[in-house]
């Protein structure tokens, strides 16, 4: 999935309004009173974020009906994230670590604005590109070419800019042979190649990557990692989710360890990985 936003945005209402830098500064002070005006302003602020999902306990209309007659509960709620607080500065590279189901993807979706928090706040500053789910954000009936234009436009590029970068995007993806094929016929790796290529050819401030690299073949993964490092060297902010602990501790300076939806460690990535391996 490629998702994005520009300017100061509040994920809880990102689709409805984008705050200007001036109006944001008021919100900023309210959110983090300890940050002085002269301090470097974070790119991402997550403050006491909570995400609750509803769990169903019936499988059919009939079961639901019987449960209701017997006054049994048919649903319950589950907090995938509890009270998560984080602040990520420009140029930081952060690995989100944790066992399956610990809330990493949910947190990344809150930061990208795909999901909204049920409590607390999630704020981002700058343009966000998220590679969160393979194939999401692509229209299956459109060709690779058309999807490049669609995704790049969503990422804020104008037609002329896309025209100028189109060849580079396709060249990086190495799937030029299939660029006019409808993407519903693409393999997972082909989706990744095109989505990644579009994202890195756009002027983003924050890049979010959730495990999607794992569907790429080894040479392409190496190429992606090299490009991610270049983006980091250029001062972009990275948030990466991966179970490849060696790779993330090498790529990211900071590690945030989640356990059952709570942050249990936030420090250097090597210590986070050590804790994760215990
Ligand atoms: N849409 C949803 N509806 C109900 N529960 C959900 C939903 N999305 C996530 N969850 C639950 O939230 C919890 C956290 O899920 P999440 O995908 O964030 O975990 P994760 O840390 O990314 O795990 P993994 O390492 O397996 O990718 C899980 O228990 C999951 O079942
Ligand atoms: Mg996940």
What would you note in describing this structure?
With 278 residues, the chain is of the alpha/beta class. The protein has a single domain, classed as 3-Layer(aba) Sandwich (Rossmann fold). The chain contains 9 helices and 10 strands. The strands form 2 sheets. The protein has a 6-stranded mixed sheet, with helices on both faces. The chain has a 4-stranded antiparallel sheet with strand order 1-5-2-3, sandwiched between helices. A hairpin with a 2-residue loop joins strand 9 (254-259) and strand 10. Helix 5 packs across helix 6 and helix 8 packs antiparallel against helix 9. The longest helix is centred in the last third of the chain and has 16 residues, at 218-233. It is globular and about 65 Å long. It starts with 7 loop residues before the first strand and ends with a helix. Mean pLDDT is 84; it is low at 3-7 and 11-38. The chain binds adenosine-5'-triphosphate and magnesium ion. Residues 53, 80, 98, 100-106 line the site of adenosine-5'-triphosphate (ATP). GO terms for molecular function: ABC-type transporter activity; ATP binding; ATP hydrolysis activity. One of its GO terms (cellular component) is membrane. Residues 61-275 form the ABC transporter domain. Keywords: ATP-binding, Nucleotide-binding, Transport. Belongs to the ABC transporter superfamily.
């Amino acid at each position: 999935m490629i998702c994005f936003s520009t300017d100061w945005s509040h994920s809880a209402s990102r689709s409805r309004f984008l705050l200007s830098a001036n109006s944001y500064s008021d919100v900023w002070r309210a959110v983090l009173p300890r940050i002085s005006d002269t301090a470097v302003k974070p790119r991402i602020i997550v403050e006491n974020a909570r995400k609750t999902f509803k769990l169903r306990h019936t499988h059919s209309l009939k079961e639901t009906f019987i449960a209701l007659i017997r006054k049994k509960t048919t649903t319950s709620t589950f907090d995938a994230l509890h009270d998560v607080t984080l602040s990520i500065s420009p140029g930081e590279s952060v690995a989100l670590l944790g066992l399956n189901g610990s809330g990493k993807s949910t947190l990344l979706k809150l930061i990208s604005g795909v999901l909204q928090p049920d409590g607390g706040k999630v704020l981002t500053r700058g343009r966000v590109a998220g590679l969160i789910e393979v194939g999401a954000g692509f229209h299956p009936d459109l060709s690779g070419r058309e999807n490049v234009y669609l995704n790049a436009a969503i990422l804020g590029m104008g037609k002329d800019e896309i025209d100028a970068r189109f060849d580079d995007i396709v060249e990086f993806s190495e799937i030029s042979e299939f660029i006019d094929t409808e993407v519903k016929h693409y393999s997972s790796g082909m989706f990744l190649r095109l989505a990644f290529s579009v994202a890195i050819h756009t002027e983003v401030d924050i890049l979010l990557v959730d495990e999607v690299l794992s569907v790429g073949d080894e040479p392409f993964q190496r190429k992606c990692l090299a490009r991610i490092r270049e983006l980091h060297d250029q001062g972009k902010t990275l948030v990466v989710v991966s179970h490849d602990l060696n790779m993330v501790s090498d790529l990211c300076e900071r590690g945030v360890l989640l356990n059952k939806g709570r942050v249990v460690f936030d420090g250097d990535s090597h210590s986070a990985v050590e804790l994760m391996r215990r």
